[in-house]
Amino acid sequence: MNAAPLVPLTTPSAVVTAGASLLADAVAQQGVTAARVDWHPPAEDHADAVAAVMGDPRRRQANAQALEAMLSAEATLVDVRPASEALGLERGQLLHAGPPVDWERASGPMRGALIGAVLFEGLADDPDEAEKMLATGDGVSWEPCHHRGAVGPMAGVVSPSMWMFELRDEAHDATSWCSLNEGLGKVLRYGAYGSEVIERLRWMTAVLGPILRTAVRAGDPIDVKGIIAQMVQMGDEGHNRNRAGTLMFLREVLPAMIDSGHPSKDVAEAVRFVSGNDHFFLNLGMPACKLQTAAAAGIAGSSVVTVMARNGTDFGIQVSGTGDQWFTAPANTPEGLFLGSYGPDDANPDIGDSAITETAGIGGFAMATAPAIVRFVGGSVPDALATSQRMYGITVGENPAFAIPILEFRGAPTGIDVTAVVRSGVLPQINTGMAGRVAGTGQVGAGLVTPPMGCFTGAIGALASAVATA
Fold first, then answer.
1. Per-residue confidence at 427, pLDDT binned at 50, 70, 90?
2. 292 domain residue, yes or no
3. How many helices (H) and strands (E) does the chain have?
4. Torsion over CA of 171, 175, 179 and 184, rounded to 10 degrees?
């Protein structure tokens, strides 16, 4: 018998690795491309709770109802007005991102943004006085933006004088709000509160807000959901890349801004500010996503996530079947790319309500549509493609309105299912900015992060308890 001829081994062009980075690092050292898959072992000690929730006879129909509600939600920009009018905030009342947090546990950027808001509102004359007021609660209070149907990026601090975008979902008779985007770098939402930050906020209050209000009220409501659908097909994922969305929004309001009757110098300055701020549309996309996920809230038996939010200390989620209850765990710190001389030691743990974009199926879930995002948050193009494909495994459906061209126009993965997260160990992927750990620093970079598994196991436990008493 003749032996089969020996076939020389060839070096593969690429290798897919999962779990610990040791294998991927070794493969890369040999000159082979390593496609790293972010895999975690399934959460242990929750089998009974998962079985109880998955065995709930209401769950399948409840999740289908939640998905249908999310897909049918609308989002139109109907007004721009101060938070005192839109949200009924009174002097000394503030809102912030994420689940509830007190001063003692507040992170550096959250403290910095609260200090800045107190200074902006003229409640204190200097940062030391503002900090004392916040520490004692003397004349000032704060609660999550989500408790009033609003959302705020990064620290998400809103004060009565700040102007808000107001979006409506007529299909579900719901409204959501978000502040105007300040830009990047040393800005309030990243915890900076220097004189340049306060002056910018004053200009936004005196000039930008009134001009946008006039422009928005002059025409028909602006279809923000429609803009998101277009931008997803133009290379924006809707969280850390909003360039196309910002320009499409400016196209909608520019004629009315010019005809607004405001001084031409002010209009020109406002146009330059919006067009030069690629993240401006983020603060429109976020309330649109809030309206989408809020439409799915409060459905008995549903295991669909309706909120993901971070305050710089804790990460919190809310689930349709458990209403407004928060499930929290310590926030992870993003990994990614840093500005200037900043490094990992300068980054604060995850912060902001902007993870509402991922909750709605864009942002990190739509990374495949925005390969250029890796130049801002890190990773590689294959990573971006793999991330979106992985998210289909932990969601209950797809959103055809947010079609991803590179995936043959497949709808974005939508409706995070806590049972799928706990069973698979796959966590939602979030693209995010990074705030400096020290109050007053501002932005230090951008990167990728996932929620802590504890949020989802906590939700599974609560859902299981609800099944037992149903």
1. very high
2. no
3. 17, 18
4. -30
State how far the Cα of 282 lies from the Cα of 245, in Å rounded to an integer.
8
Instruction: Please check whether residue 371 lies inside any domain of the structure.
Output: yes
Q: Is the pTM of this model over 0.70?
A: yes
User: Sign of dihedral through CA atoms 260, 262, 264, 266?
Assistant: negative
Judged by DSSP in three states, 399 sits in strand
Q: What is the DSSP letter of 147?
A: G
In terms of C-beta density within 10 A (0-12 exposed, 13-18 middle, 19 or more buried), how is residue 84 classed?
A: middle
Q: How far is CA 41 from the centre of its chain?
A: 25
**Residue 372: how many CB atoms within 10 A of its CB?**
13
For 87-115, the pLDDT digits (tens) are 999 999 999 999 999 999 999 999 999 99
Sheet containing strand 327-330, edge to edge, reads: 327-330, 314-319, 305-311, 351-352
141 shares its domain with 246: yes
Domain holding 278, by residue range, is: 76-287
- Rounded to an integer, what distance in angstroms lies between the CA atom of residue 230 and that of residue 90? 38
Tokens representing residue 451 in the block = 């929620």
Segment 132-181, tens digit of pLDDT: 999 999 999 999 999 999 999 999 999 999 999 999 999 999 999 999 99
- Asked if residues 169 and 296 have their Cβ atoms less than 8 Å apart, the reply is no
Count CB atoms within 10 A of the CB of residue 457: 21
